[in-house]
Each structure stands twice: as C-alpha cells, then as structure tokens.
Automatic annotation (TrEMBL):
Record InterPro entries: GT87
Protein name, entry field: Alpha-1,2-mannosyltransferase
Transmembrane portions of the chain: 12-30, 69-102, 162-183, 189-208, 253-274, 280-310, 322-340, 352-373
GO molecular function, one term: hexosyltransferase activity
Membrane topology summary: Multi-pass membrane protein
Lineage: Bacteria, Bacillati, Actinomycetota, Actinomycetes, Propionibacteriales
Main location: membrane
Keywords tagged on the record: Cell membrane, Glycosyltransferase, Membrane, Transferase, Transmembrane, Transmembrane helix
Organism: Kribbella jejuensis
Keyword Transmembrane helix among UniProt keywords: yes
Length: 396
C-alpha cells in the first residue's frame, strides 16, 4: 500500500468513526439537560433568594440542588442565559474537557498516535456510557475530571493544588485528591488545595450564612435528596450493598467499613504508582476511589474510566494494547449495568447473574486496580520506557 493510499484509508476510517459517533450519540440522547436545569435553578436561587437554594426544583422535576453553595455561585451566570444557549455551551465545554483529558493522558503512552487516530479516538470516546450520559444530562463530570487531571499531572505549574481544591468545593468527591497530595508528599500542593477548598466553603458562608450552615450540618448527610440508592445507575459500594441487602436506607457499619478499607487501600496503591512513575495510573486510581466511596455515584460520574483505560493500555504494547483497550472500551460502551430489570426497586430482586451485570462498573474498576497493582513488580517497572528519565516524584 502506498503512502497516499494509507493516508486516504486513515482519513476514511476517521471520518467513519466520527460519523458513527455522531449518529449513535443522537440515538442515545435522552436526558435533555436534566441536571443542567437543576444547576440553573441553583444559580437563579443565588441571584434571587439564597435561602431557598435547597428547596427549589426545576419545573416538572423533583430533583433539588444538592451541591455546595459555591457550585451554585458558579452556576449563576449560566442561569441568566437562554436555555438553548446554556445547554449548547455545556456540551461545548464538556467536549473541550474530553480533548483536554486526552491531551493530559497521552504522555502515559510510549508512542503518540497520529493526528487522525487521535481524532478518531476522541470521537469514539464520546460513546463511552459515562461520557455520553454526562453530555446528555448537561453534567459537569468531564470538566471536573479534566481540571483534576491537569492540576495533578502538570508538575511545573506553580499553583498546583488550587484546581483540585476548587473542584472539591464544587462537588465534594474530589476531596480524595487532596488526601492524595498529602500521602504522596506533595506538601505545598496539599496546602494550596486545602486553602482553595476552605475558600470555597467560606464563600458560601459569605453569600448565604444560614443556608451554608444548613448544608454543612444537615443536607450534606441527606443521601435521599440525590435519588433512589438501589437504582442500578448508582455504581458505588453503597448502591451495591443496598441492592444486595435490600436496606433502602443505605449506609450502615458495613458500608462505612468498606469505604474506609477502599480509601486506605486505594490511596496506598495511588501512592505506590505515583512513586513508581506511573502518574496517570495513580491519579486514575484516586478517581476510582471517589466513585466507589461516594454514597451515590451515578453511571455518568464514572468518566474516570477514560483516563483509567488509557492507564491500562499503557501497560501493554502492540496488539495486546489494542486488545486490552478494545475490551475496556467495549465494556463501557455496551454498559451491562442497564441489562437487568431496573427502577421501582426491582434491583432488590436480582439473581446472581443480574448482580454481576448490574454492578459491572464496580467489578471492572476493582479489576483495573488489581491489575495496576500487579504492575508494581520490579521486573514490570523495569520494562516501562516512560520511567527511564522520570524526575523526582517528591515536590518541594
């Protein structure tokens, strides 16, 4: 095959992938910005009556605003935009976040794909169930993921940690990355992240003191505001234990113990990977901790499967890389969690096979973490070209 024929074939394949991605996104688009509507209501409440922030609902919807006040402050400009413009803007920003995620993650691979391949990979990644659901809901998951990855992996950035702290102020689950900075010995970044997070909390008390007090003392612990814990879309330890035990209240001693064990083991693994030079894998495992340990982790919160999948692919070469990446990708495109019966608490009656499929994200995440742990063996680390000239992992 000549070079011209090869380029033509690559362009054709890329165009086909992009067209298929667009077509399938249209077919699976079903949430019409539902979460963005909640964000806008929160932003509007901040502009009009902050005391009603956690009581108001979008018209025709029962979902209340559940994030810290700082998140509502950031959503205030979105609230004044016309709805079509706000929804379009959320999609554009999320697409930009996907591009940034790819840019940040690519150095983990020993070989950089050609530009056309990157375009195809970008388009194909939009079909990952967590990614396409985030786009459809008008969610902020991809933006937070991109912010955290950029902040954690850009070692030359003097303000490292601030992005993580702000992300935690918007949605509490990124707090695990603050702990990650601490256990990896990145003290200055840890202090900046902690200060940034506390600044977001203080901003809430300045804008609406009583509402902020209500959030941090009552609402933050009210998991019933978020939705049905048993729903198959809740791919957290809490959701799994609710479906397994039938206790719709969730939580309990078993869940707390599981969360503590997951956090300790996950942070240990993240630290070990970071010190071994596998930085993307370290941060991705930390993202996995956040979705496993949160009381509610809807499937669209699992956007961390994108950097986690790249981390897994980086452990292989040649055809094995393609096979591993393909299997990982396929699992999150077909999304087995939606196969068993769901809604109206039918999840409480799943049999063994339905439990396996309906909790697939948990099993895949745990399997990925276990595999990355096996890569810490000295012989495997010695075979990783990207580690040859790694700078010191401890930052001043």
């Amino acid at each position: 095959m000549s070079i011209a024929q090869g380029n033509s074939w690559s362009k054709g394949l890329t165009a086909l992938v992009v067209l298929l991605a667009v077509a399938l996104l249209v077919l699976t688009w079903g949430h019409t910005g539902a979460d963005l509507k909640v964000y806008r209501v929160g932003g509007w409440a901040i502009l009009t009556d902050p005391s009603r922030l956690y009581d108001v609902h979008p018209a025709g919807m029962s979902m209340p605003f559940t994030y810290p006040i700082f998140a509502a402050i950031l959503m205030a400009p979105v609230a004044v935009l016309p709805w079509p413009l706000a929804y379009a803007l959320s999609i554009v920003v999320s697409l930009a976040a996907v591009a940034l995620i790819w840019k940040v993650c690519l150095p983990a691979l020993t070989t950089r794909p050609p530009v056309l391949a990157l375009v195809a990979l970008f388009a194909a990644s939009l079909l990952l169930e967590p990614v396409r659901e985030t786009l459809s809901y008008g969610q902020i998951n991809l933006v937070l993921c991109a912010v955290v990855l950029s902040d954690a992996l850009d070692l030359k950035h003097r303000g490292r940690g601030i992005g993580i702290g702000i992300a935690a102020g918007i949605k509490l689950t990124p707090l695990v990355f603050v702990a990650f900075l601490l256990v990896t010995g990145q003290r200055k970044a840890f202090l900046r992240a902690s200060a940034a997070f506390l600044a977001t909390v203080a901003a809430g008390f300045v804008i609406a003191p009583r509402t902020a007090f209500q959030y941090w003392t009552v609402i933050v612990n009210d998991h019933t505001r978020i939705g049905g814990l048993a729903y198959s879309g809740n791919q957290s330890w809490n959701g799994f234990l609710v479906r397994l035990s039938g206790d719709l209240g969730g939580g309990g001693v078993l869940w707390i113990g599981t969360v503590v064990l997951t956090a300790v083991a996950g942070l240990w693994l993240s630290r070990a990977l970071w010190l071994a030079g596998r930085r993307l894998a370290a941060v991705s495992v930390c993202g996995l901790i956040s979705v496993l340990c949160s009381p509610v982790s809807w499937s669209h919160h699992w956007v961390w499967v994108l950097p986690l999948g790249i981390s897994l692919a980086a452990c292989f070469d040649g055809r094995r890389r393609l096979v591993a990446a393909g299997l990982w990708y396929l699992a999150f495109v077909v999304a087995p969690i939606w196969w068993p019966p769901r809604r109206d608490n039918r999840e409480l009656h799943w049999n063994l096979w339905q439990q396996l499929a309906g909790n697939a994200y948990l099993w895949l995440g745990l399997g990925a973490a276990a595999f990355l742990w096996t890569q810490l063996h000295p012989k495997r680390l010695a075979l990783t070209p990207q580690l040859v000239n790694e700078p010191s992992t401890h930052l001043p």
